[in-house]
Amino acid sequence: MSSRPAWLDPRPYAALAGSAGTREVTAALTAAQPTITDFAALLSPAAASHLEAMAQRARELTRGHFGNTIQLYAPLYLSNYCTGGCSYCGFSSDRHQPRHKLTVEQLATEMKALRAMHIEEILLLTGERTPEADFDYLNRCVADAAAVFPKVTVEAFGMRVEEYSALEASGCTGITLYQETYDPTVYEQCHRWGEKRDFAFRIAAPDRAFESGLRSVGIGALLGLADPVSECLALYQHVRHLQRRHWKGGITVSFPRLRPEAGGFRSPHPVDEPFLARIIFAFRICFADVPLVLSTRESAGFRDGMAGIGINKMSVASRTTVGGYEAGEAADKGQFEIDDNRDVTTFCSMLRAHHLEPVFKNWDAVFR
Ligand code: SF4
């Protein structure tokens, strides 16, 4: 089993999250430069009764740094082939479902459908390396996508620096790579086979991506796999580590929660909506200028409530199946179930009703 680097260990702070009282929570809410001690206090049971005050502080900081805007993007699944054995994922190699990858022509059709929805930023996704969907395939798709979209990012397998450099040369601006869980024991249990079993290789992937010249890296924990307080404390330390080492890089943080999937995996540590809201507010209070992302995994009501409060970037009208935009309602099962099925127009109307401006583009291809 790979060991967890000492700088990532949440245990020295977990006790604080258990023992903080109102005095520590109030201090965290007013701290000019909150520390991990403040963060732990905001995750404590005592902070549950301060949810409204946390929301107000988070809103103030979000609006102060990002204005009344929500940046939008859409995921595009290239392939559901995967050699990985992640116990929580509908694309795991032991799930019996049809496997596909987009051909060049099908990718063009999907991109056309997304452009018709006014999408300017896409996240290309694929599973672990397979003969059908390997690095060369992914790199080719990035190049094709970069000819159509100003901003193209990738969520795929962990790579070497040279591979990230090649993606960057093809027009990729960043990656998303969740550690899934920062608990090495749970990590080993969930990642039953495949390259992804290597905890240490994965934890260092964001560093390698920045070293390659990629501009942005999105990180997160898959909430529900392990104790959520420890996961958030480790995620906090991961953000701080990346900020210290790659101060020019753009770091984003996402809050994926385990969703129902084809294999029937159920969360051993469920995170309810009030606690997820508190996690988001705590990250915003401690990382005022870090973009925080919420996907369509979450319900419409929850997303509406978080938009502009702690969250400033959201996916919209997502499909988690290969070819899902052109096909509309999918015959296959996706990687996981999505909960907010609204189309772009409906979602943007909601944002405007909340006095928020949807932003489709804040970056031009000329800057690549
Ligand atoms: S999470 Fe990724 S690597 Fe794991 S089974 Fe799903 S697609 Fe494959």
Keywords:
368 residues; alpha/beta; TIM Barrel; 8-stranded parallel beta barrel; 40% helix; 11% strand; globular; binds iron/sulfur cluster
Molecular structure report:
- With 368 residues, the chain is α/β, with parallel strands linked by helices.
- It has one domain: TIM Barrel.
- 40% of the residues lie in helices and 11% in strands.
- The protein contains 15 helices and nine strands.
- The chain has helices spanning 11-19, 22-30, 36-42, 51-66, 104-116, 135-146, 161-169, 184-190, 199-203, 205-212, 228-245, 273-286, 300-306, 324-327, 344-353; strands spanning 69-77, 121-125, 151-155, 174-176, 216-219, 250-254, 292-294, 313-315, 357-359.
- Helix 6 (135-146) links the parallel strand 2 and strand 3 (151-155).
- The structure holds iron/sulfur cluster.
- The site of iron/sulfur cluster has 9 residues, from loops.
Distance between the termini: 39 Å
The helix tally amounts to 15
What is the overall shape? Answer: globular
CATH-derived topology:
TIM Barrel
Task: Kindly name the structural category.
Answer: alpha/beta
Main sheet? 8 strands, parallel, barrel
The CATH architecture: Alpha-Beta Barrel
CATH superfamily: Aldolase class I
Total domain modules:
1
Strand order of the largest sheet: 1-2-3-4-5-6-7-8
Low-confidence stretches: none
Tell me how many strands there are.
9
CATH level 1 class label? Alpha Beta
Mean pLDDT: 94
Bound molecules: iron/sulfur cluster
